[in-house]
Amino acid sequence: MTTPRLDDAALDAIFRTARSFNGYTDEPVADAELEAVWELMKWGPTSANQLPARLVWVRTPDGKEKLAACATGTNPDKIRQAPATVIVGMDTDFHEQLPWLFPHADARSWFAGNAELRQASAFRNSTLQGAYLMIAARALGLDIGAMSGFDAGEVDKAFFADTPSVHANFIATIGHGDPATVHDRLPRPDFGTFNRFA
Amino acid sequence: MTTPRLDDAALDAIFRTARSFNGYTDEPVADAELEAVWELMKWGPTSANQLPARLVWVRTPDGKEKLAACATGTNPDKIRQAPATVIVGMDTDFHEQLPWLFPHADARSWFAGNAELRQASAFRNSTLQGAYLMIAARALGLDIGAMSGFDAGEVDKAFFADTPSVHANFIATIGHGDPATVHDRLPRPDFGTFNRFA
Question: Which residues of A touch B156 (CB under 8 A)?
């Protein structure tokens, strides 16, 4: 089993020439395209197959207004304009699903009664899934723009009131990017700046 | 600017047929291949270009023994056997780099004096970078196996003693995967289980 290297066009599409978008063209995005993002990202690894991410794909005018009301700065307008905005939530009671997600060990018992470990694990692993989501969207020909500028407590009240163990982690707009909305590219240092061998 | 969709072989390589490996073949991995992982993953987005990940690529016998001594369960042997294990650390003082990483605003001031926000931001964004690292490694024809089974405090003492603002987040072995070391694939639910539209 030799893992093949992706060609340059693919490396460009998911990393090297990919950009964060602040606005999108009128080209529509179908629900099925968003479902396909999940069907791809779900294969990315999480610790003990926790899969703690709980995703809300905001598509309707009412949903967009509700989410825009929780966002800060220029983010409300981005949410209104984008074909979709996904809320990456995390379930701190993810361990209740482990008997079927990780059936060969009693993984539920590793987390039951340890809220601090569950919080850190849900945060880490839902964030991994959020990164998989962004790469998967790009791999399927979509563009994204992630945002941290929102009131997480308000998003929880507006979208996760019925599931109190679920909390918003970050959000991202999705669509076909409008190149006019891209900022100048920010610096990315060479290997030696933030890396070393040991 | 239309983002091209990756072909099926590429989608398989980074997500659909990719697996987490517990052991690797004898095929060597060059330092330059690990540097290439950084040169690809560094383009993945982080909030305000924080780039808080600090990566230690453990390659030497001494380094492997030092890291193995911090790991639990079967992880010490995996670290010894793998061509490389990367420690994904996070710098909670990442904001000191923002004057040059995010030069068009005083982003440093958003984080100075707010240790709680810096902790959450460093954790979230270094984890995103860890996910980019895993996908980038696969995209370049390498295989990986992420691990949370280690004592983070001991890793900090062994590898980050000179940089007290840097803390271990997670670790991952890297090499050319030995298919004999792969476990049965764990369930991945359909869209409706952990997703909804709003």
Answer: none
